[in-house]
Design brief:
The protein is of the alpha/beta class and 501 residues long. Helix content is 40%, strand content 21%. The protein has 18 helices and 22 strands. Helix 9 links the parallel strand 8 and strand 9. Helix 3 runs parallel beside helix 10 and helix 7 packs parallel to helix 8. Bound molecules: nicotinamide-adenine-dinucleotide. Nicotinamide-adenine-dinucleotide binds next to helix 10 and helix 11. The site of nicotinamide-adenine-dinucleotide has 30 residues, from helix 10 and helix 11.
């Protein structure tokens, strides 16, 4: 008789669902209330999360403080933190299939992307940041203080961990964003209270459990679940938080920035974007069309650097648009678990509604909708990829971050006009230039106001490459050596000693 497989063998993501928080190394289920967690491909409720209130926030921050000040953590050599981060990377890979499927269930993204980015890139980032733990150093300084006579000075700086970190992340790359905060914070010797987005708490809880399993001391990584305006707001305002590391919308980033300054907490902000894609008339055409489509439709456009404003040099305008519309029309929409799917659902009913309202406002503003945007019959939060042209420069679809599969195309004459259009936004996160003319590329790159400029590619990231925003796209940088500075306080040590007798 053939053995029958249990549900958890065929669907390991179900066994990975947790409905508790992690505080001080323990599962924790007390809270103000419980909130549903949905599968965006069906709208079904798949779990309930605790909503942490002020009492639970206080417990988590105190647990992180105790861990930060504990002898076990303070005296752990950097190589110990390195080993923990490496072990967590291995553990994430070992649990990779269940984690990837859990992410697809909760976020809706394509399973291939969950495997490659949520799991694969998380392990890659952990390993890169593990290496930093043993390379954080201070400087030796030569002072010129001339008094009192006969006294000499030795000075050096110490790079000390900033303390307890409140890490708040969005729902578009839930596991990876959590790792982007936890890995450098732990490498620097901090402890963390992580609040995942209320839409996607499930992989973050599992991440904290895996950290405990590989030997992270209790309290080093805590996870609080709940909404931003309740749990998140209480967390950032808590006096026991030394540093806030936030990724999310510019609007919420500004709110949190005010709270941080009030409490003089250290802060880094990774915020929204409205990134331009510039297609020059000497570009590799097929590659540029495919690239422009990927720039906006990857992860359903729910990407902070999504190429949502497409500028095409006039001689190529019609050909590029025609190609882009053909790609958009050909994308298969469906569940992220279906290997043939190319566009999954929006993360939530509320977000789908927001994206649909932008599309309606775009049509009402007089812009031409070349494809997409129709309502979707059936369950799940799907939006058909939409391509606009002829939008007024002040239209909301041109100026606001939609965070969905909606692109607005416009034409330009020359390099000066391309730069003016690209920079005509309050955001400055990413940009791409598609051109085979090296001189032109070098002329354009310094003129684009964006934290990352890609050439003949878009949305590519690496743990060694600093990432962050110009203008209202944020403050500070993640990744590379730059991110370590976010989690460090510099202490100057100045020692006087008598000169030779
Ligand atoms: P959001 O700002 O609504 O929420 C982000 C996080 O902040 C969530 O965990 C939320 O619960 C929390 N939050 C909301 N209000 C809060 C408050 N008052 N106090 C404390 N926490 C609060 O953003 P979102 O809709 O989850 O994510 C999409 C946004 O994130 C987009 O703007 C996108 O560009 C941005 N994003 C930026 C980057 C980057 O690296 N620059 C990366 C991914 C996403």
């Amino acid at each position: 008789m053939a053995a029958t497989m249990t549900a958890t063998e065929t669907r390991p993501e179900l066994a990975a669902i947790r409905e508790h928080m992690i505080i001080g190394g323990q599962p924790y289920t007390e809270g103000e209330t419980r909130l549903p967690v949905h599968d965006p491909a069906t709208g079904d409720v798949i779990a309930h999360q605790v909503e942490a209130g002020p009492a639970q926030v206080d417990q988590a921050v105190c647990a992180a403080r105790r861990a930060f000040e504990s002898a076990a953590w303070r005296t752990m050599p950097p190589a110990g933190r390195e080993r923990l981060l490496l072990a967590l990377a291995d553990r994430i890979e070992a649990e990779g299939e269940a984690l990837a499927r859990l992410e697809t269930l909760n976020n809706g993204k394509l399973l291939g992307l969950s495997r490659m980015l949520e799991v694969g890139a998380s392990a890659q980032w952990l390993r890169y940041m593990a290496g930093w733990a043993t390379k954080i150093t201070g400087d030796t300084l030569n002072l010129s203080i001339p008094f009192p006579p006969g006294v000499h000075y030795h000075a050096h700086t110490r790079a000390e961990p900033v303390g307890v970190v409140a890490a708040i992340v969005p729902w578009n790359f839930p596991l990876l964003m959590a790792v982007w905060k936890i890995a450098p914070a732990v490498a620097a010797g901090c402890t963390v209270v992580l609040k995942p987005a209320e839409e996607t708490p499930l992989t973050a809880i599992r991440l904290a459990e895996l950290a405990l399993e590989v030997g992270f001391p209790p309290g080093v990584v805590n996870v609080l679940t709940g909404r931003g305006e309740t749990t998140g707001a209480a967390l950032v305002a808590h006096p026991g938080i030394d540093k806030i590391a936030f990724t999310g919308s510019t609007e919420v980033g500004k709110l949190i920035g005010h709270v941080a300054v009030d409490g003089m907490k250290r802060i880094s902000l990774e915020l929204g974007g409205k990134s331009p894609v510039l297609i020059m008339d000497d570009c590799p055409l097929e590659q540029a069309i495919r690239g422009a489509a990927d720039a906006i439709f990857f992860n359903q456009g729910q990407v902070c650097t999504a190429g949502s404003r497409l500028f095409i040099q006039e001689g190529l305008y019609d050909r590029v648009l025609e190609g882009l519309v053909a790609v958009a029309d050909g994308l298969r929409i469906g569940s992220g678990f279906d290997p043939d799917t190319q566009i999954g659902p929006m993360v939530s009913a509320r977000h789908r509604q927001r994206v649909s309202e932008f599309i309606a406002a775009g049509k009402a503003s007089g812009a031409r909708l070349l494809t997409g945007g129709q309502d979707w019959d059936g369950p799940g939060y799907f939006v058909r990829p939409a391509v606009f042209d002829g939008a007024a420069p002040e239209a909301a679809i041109v100026r606001e971050e939609i965070f969905g599969p909606v692109v607005v195309a416009a034409r330009f004459r020359d390099e000066d006009q391309a730069v003016a259009l690209a920079n005509d936004t309050r955001f400055g996160l990413g940009a791409s230039i598609w051109s085979n003319d090296l001189g032109r590329v070098h002329r354009l790159v310094p003129r684009i106001q964006a934290g990352t400029v890609w050439v003949n590619t878009h949305n590519m990231l690496d743990p060694s490459m600093p990432f962050g925003g110009y203008k209202q796209s944020g403050i500070g940088r993640e990744h590379g050596s730059a991110v370590i500075g976010n989690y460090i306080e510099t202490k100057s040590v100045c020692i006087a000693y008598p000169g030779a007798a």
